[in-house]
Amino acid sequence: xxRRLSRLVTAGLACGGLAMTSxxxxxxxxxxxxxxxxxxxxxxxxxxxxxxxxxxxxxxSWGPEDxxxxxxxxxxxxxxxxxxxxxxxxxxxARPSADEPPVLVRxxxxxxxxxxxxxxxxxxxxxxxxxxxxLFRSCQDTRCxxxxxxxxxxxxxxxxLRGDEASCPPAQCVxxxxxxxxxxxCTLAGRCDAGACFARVIGSRCGPGHDCAPRLGCV
Length: 219
Known about the structure:
Blueprint: H1 2-14, H2 22-28, E1 40-47, E2 57-64, E3 71-76, E4 88-94, E5 103-110, E6 116-123, E7 130-135, E8 149-151, E9 154-156, E10 186-193, E11 196-204, E12 212-213, E13 217-218
């Protein structure tokens, strides 16, 4: 304890201030260094597509923005998996160094019938340790202009990834009641998360041995 107080007094005198409080020492000392970022970025996925039916598998690829691929990985899903209320970490992607080109991450979804759609893409932000790929059913039929991307059925700036960033348009929802969802065959439950609406299948009018897929019916 005596040694620690001695260091504080010395630091205070060196700054020309009083060493009576820690505030005086911190104010005139060197700033604390920023914590180092992890060498890789975790890619998480969240989706209201029904696992094993609308979403049988995901293909994740990444590489330089100007073309090419550094890696590809595939992930399979089964009925009963929950990707809407329980987002899942898929993999980790090496963070590019300052002299390397930005990394573009792409996510494509395949349904049980084999239909594929490129639902999500984003440039790896240099300052984050987690990247959220939020895959919305409402984006499957949405076509956005170059320089924008789809989030919850709306075209948004490319750096609007979750829906609650400063670059995003006004929130789509505040609570679950703002997320009304309906389908002729499937029973859907709307849920608001970070200002965006998800619509998960919770029941259907399908007979035994059939699953319900919005837009497709009983499959």
